[in-house]
């Protein structure tokens, strides 16, 4: 954040069409450049070449038609790429080469626990990308289809902790909400203690103390970010992933975006944790996996 250049990776499937629409609207919202990439399978390309077929040329034509069928982006801000290579590596390499600010990917059509796996490409990019990644569920629809931007999207909710990635995600969420002209809020979940019944009173006292301490610490940290508007904080207790996913669930007339934080590639802690994957597997809203270099926090 701010978004000046976006990379949308597509495989001509319906989930990637939905992700491309979101990416195009995000590009129009920010006046950003949009790079649309199709990673050509090396074995498929070799087989086609042996038959004298110029698969790259044919794929580029198809990519142009696929893009033109969606939300229009100014031609001067739109770039198509057909690259032969494995999906994850190709996407991350192009993102680095073009200096993009965010990658947009679709979450392929799975349901329930199976969605935790996403698909190898999306999971690989989440693990290896050095820039933030937007993961778009295949059920997403624009709240105002007749517009070309993200009008009507919001509010923005960020899962926050007193860590570098958590606070960086909060700052990014605030900037995104400002661009979308929508409210921003933060949620922090204190994991419920599992104890024997005879210790339940002590456990509740410990939880109350943790909630009080964390509220004071996080509210102080959020105030220190000096965001354009204060970020209201809610604290809940229970299963972290389930409460975050539930908090991000759309209410009447809402079209939320959820922001999570992690360290960038190259850090020992760069891979999203189990909680983040569980949230991604349960939610039905766009999720921005924001990242921050470890050396900057």
Task: Give a short summary of the structure.
With 297 residues, the chain is α/β, with parallel strands linked by helices. The protein has helices at residues 14-30, 42-50, 55-68, 87-98, 120-128, 164-180, 200-224, 240-247, 274-282; strands spanning 5-9, 33-40, 78-84, 102-107, 133-137, 156-159, 184-191, 233-238, 257-263, 287-292.
What portion of residues is helical?
40-55%
Radius of gyration (CA) equals 20 Å
Given helix and strand content, the structural type is alpha/beta
Characterize the biggest β-sheet. Answer: 10 strands, mixed
Average residue pLDDT? 88
| Cα-to-Cα separation, first versus last residue | 17 Å
In CATH, the architecture of the largest domain is 3-Layer(aba) Sandwich
What amount of the residues lies in strands? 15-25%
Structure summary, number of beta strands: 10
Poorly predicted runs are 109-118, 266-270
CATH superfamily of the largest domain: HUPs
Write the CATH fold name of the largest domain.
Rossmann fold
CATH C-level label of the largest domain: Alpha Beta
User: How would you spell out the order of helices and strands?
Assistant: EHEHHEHEHEEHEHEHEHE
């Amino acid at each position: 954040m701010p978004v000046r250049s976006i990379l949308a990776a597509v495989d001509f499937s319906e989930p990637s069409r939905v992700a491309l629409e979101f990416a195009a609207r995000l590009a129009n919202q920010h006046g950003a450049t949009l790079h649309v990439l199709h990673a050509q399978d090396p074995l498929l390309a070799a087989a086609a070449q042996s038959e004298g077929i110029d698969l790259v040329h044919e794929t580029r034509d198809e990519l142009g038609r696929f893009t033109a069928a969606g939300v229009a982006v100014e031609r001067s801000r739109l770039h198509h790429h057909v690259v032969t290579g494995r999906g994850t590596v190709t996407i991350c390499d192009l993102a680095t080469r073009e200096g993009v600010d965010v990658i947009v990917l679709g979450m392929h059509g799975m349901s329930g626990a199976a969605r935790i796996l996403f698909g190898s490409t999306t999971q690989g990019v989440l693990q290896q990308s050095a820039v933030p990644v937007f993961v778009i569920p295949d059920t997403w629809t624009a709240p105002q289809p007749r517009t070309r931007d993200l009008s009507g999207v919001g509010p923005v909710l960020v899962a926050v902790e007193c860590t570098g990635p958590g606070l960086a995600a909060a700052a990014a969420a605030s900037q995104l909400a400002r661009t979308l002209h929508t409210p921003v809020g933060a949620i922090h979940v204190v994991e419920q203690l599992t104890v024997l019944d005879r210790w339940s009173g002590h456990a509740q006292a410990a939880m109350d103390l943790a909630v009080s301490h964390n509220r004071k610490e996080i509210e102080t940290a959020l105030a220190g970010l000096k965001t354009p508007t204060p970020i209201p904080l809610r604290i809940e207790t229970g299963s972290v992933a389930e409460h975050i996913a539930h908090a991000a669930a759309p209410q009447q007339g809402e079209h939320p975006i959820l922001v999570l934080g992690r360290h960038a590639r190259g850090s020992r802690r760069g891979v999203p944790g189990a909680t983040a994957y569980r949230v991604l597997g349960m939610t039905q809203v766009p999720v921005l996996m924001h990242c921050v270099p470890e050396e900057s926090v």
